[in-house]
Records
---
Amino acid sequence: MSGLRVRQPAVSGSFYPSSPARCGELAAALFAAAGQLPLSGPDVPAGMPAGILVPHAGLVYSGVTAAAAWRTLGAAPDTEPEADAGEPGADAAAAAADGRGGPLTVVILGTNHVSRRLRGIAVWDEAAWAIPGGEVAVNRALAGEIAALGRPFGVDPAAHEGEHSIEVQLPLLAAIAPGALIVPLAVSAGTGDEAIEAGDLLGRLLADRRDAGERIVLAVSSDMAHYPAAAACERATERLLPLILATHAAGLAAAETALIASGVEGLSCGMCGIEPAVTGMAALRAMDATRASVLAASTSADAGGPADQAVGYLAVRFDQPAY
């Protein structure tokens, strides 16, 4: 690993605490709160998902909803290791304990907020990303395989500098699945055919690796509607949700465009991460991860933000159908 870069945090102290102790305390509190949320139905699978949709705002706002997604990957901090087999994450914790399938790798499709020059999907293939009190290592072998898929994929660590959409996930991932590896992908590939084809390529690669016994989860990092009133935020989520649950990439892109054009007061986007979401839905479909379950939904107003300018958050898990 000599000479390889460790990405330093860009938003610690703002999106989440910079103190390791405070960061750990916040993660534990968020997972505890997420564990009290009612699930949307009795058929939410247990164990490790194939994929998740997870929000990426400051953890004080989106953290409980984000924790609802991340807690499906393992045993929540300060919980007993002998969790009931029916509890979310119990299978994952057992697999981690006995080493089945090797270390967990989470491939994270991040939203591109800051890189004006990025046109494609930027792979970070260097050593690790730092978080308060530690580092999250990169699965460099898988990162290299993804980059080798060709356009729009390519190695571009600089595209990740200053970006928060992947970074803000890592304190929760590190708390719920210590030792997990990541492959960070900054997505700015549009929402058309190229983005969908890229998702299909990625999904097929990840499906092959999963079929070979590797423990891989695809995470799509996106918030929902931005800046309408809270009630309109909730309606926007409801409008896009059926396409997300159907893993319908083209339909989701079209519905988000139509939502923006519908004249909702204050609305700037239906999903700020529509590009990684479109690529992610195509990848999940290629992975046969078409069984979707809503884990949580909220707005920033629920966490004390202004009700007249709200942001929506959604957590969904994706699994292979139970044939």
---
Amino acid sequence: MTQTQTPQLRPLGPALGTEALGIDLSKPLDAGTFAWIQAAFAEHPVLVFRDQDLGARELAAFGRRFGVPRPHALTKYRHAECPEVSWLTNVEETGKIDWYGVKRATDWHTDSTYEDTLPLLAMLHAKEVPSEKGGTMFADMRAAYDALPEAQKQRLSGLTGLHGRTDGPVGERLYGAEKGKTDKTYDEVPWPAVTRHPVTGRSILFVNPMHTHGFVGMKREEAWPLIEELADHATQERFVYYHRWRVGDVLIWDERATMHRGAGDYKPDERRIMLRTIVYPN
């Protein structure tokens, strides 16, 4: 693939999903091309680069253009030669089905909101995909906020969410006691329920049902129904993009402006293998 002089954007869905044309990520990106990517990504928080072929180190190098890639909390899936990259896979090293890998991340969430520092973005690079389906879904939390009733916006402006690893409403349902092994213990972290995008200034609904398990000063009996109400609102079809993976896709998404989930709609005996990295501020 040759790099064109002028990259272009092509919409993939009415809500989210934009393809960046004319960029080969296996080649060094000059300052002008990377500035174009950054500007496009600020406005289009799910950005796809097709027909790429990167190794773990190359994916991490692309991540380092934005910030600092960090090892994933789940130690089992870290790449042996490049720990800041992990595997998103349904296949064990033995070749058997990895059932934790099958169900992993198949309900709505924003990554790592239980960390002391919030990530900027994450990347997935498709290496093997099922013959049909097996997609990833993204919800636009900017548009979801904009569509809230004014009274709800006022209420949320004064709320601080409490975040843990998988102890929100859907985290409890999806994982129960099976949380996956990590190399440290994660404590509760507070984040405002509404935040602003650092580049565009747009307001963002920052509540997710995997990691948000409460609000400061609110009892669980009131907090959980509110979290689920907001999740239902944000994941209406009008706010959601379903990405149909092709081998070679590199997809980056803004961890502030979106929620996502694995659709969980493929036959688990078909291999689904991707490289993944998550990028934090410098």
